[in-house]
Amino acid sequence: MSGEALASAASDETIDTATVERMAKEMAQAMDAGGLQLAVVVGGGNIWRGTTGESSGMDRATSDYMGMLGTVINALALQDALEQQDQPTRVLTALSMAEVAEPYIRRRAIRHLEKGRIVIFAAGMGNPFFTTDTTAVLRAAEIGADVVLKGTDVDGVYSADPKKDSKAQRYERLTHQEAIARNLKVMDTTAFALARENRMPIIVFSIREQGAIAAVLRGKGRFTVVSE
Fold it and tell me: What is the enclosing helix (H) or strand (E) of 119?
């Protein structure tokens, strides 16, 4: 999920407590149903974006590292909300900060998942110039995930921004190559290419809708599937 998903759509709150609580409840409910292992990659755009600093003359790598630190703040907020739902959770970060989170180690992440804990991946890949989208696909491939769920502000992939273009076409299904060729902006090209190479399906859905997270985790609701 993007960092903006944790902010309120109706206010200027950087992290909206009610929004984070709703997401945590839906994730916990899905876990309680059984048969699911869930890992979350969270962005930091509600706090800082690397491109924001770059546009004002800041060194891009420095600005990206600031964004990674923002993702850790969001991850801790989500962890707290999940634990208030009695859901065991671990934050694993690509940047070393042992006082607040565990370091990202692939086998450790898999072990946490096997024990029924929700794993939250923070600090991106630990490298500048890569997006949350690319991190999500990479981590999914590393832990052997079945699918990447991409929570956005709209209920799938469209040919154009449906908020700006009333004629935008919504796709039910796409291949990774079609998404790249049509330059669809729901995820960046690197993420789509990595998903294609690893045969990783992606489900794009609206994270803003009540019950959407729980529904898509059960394979229900309204979404677009990007796959082979």
Answer: strand 118-122
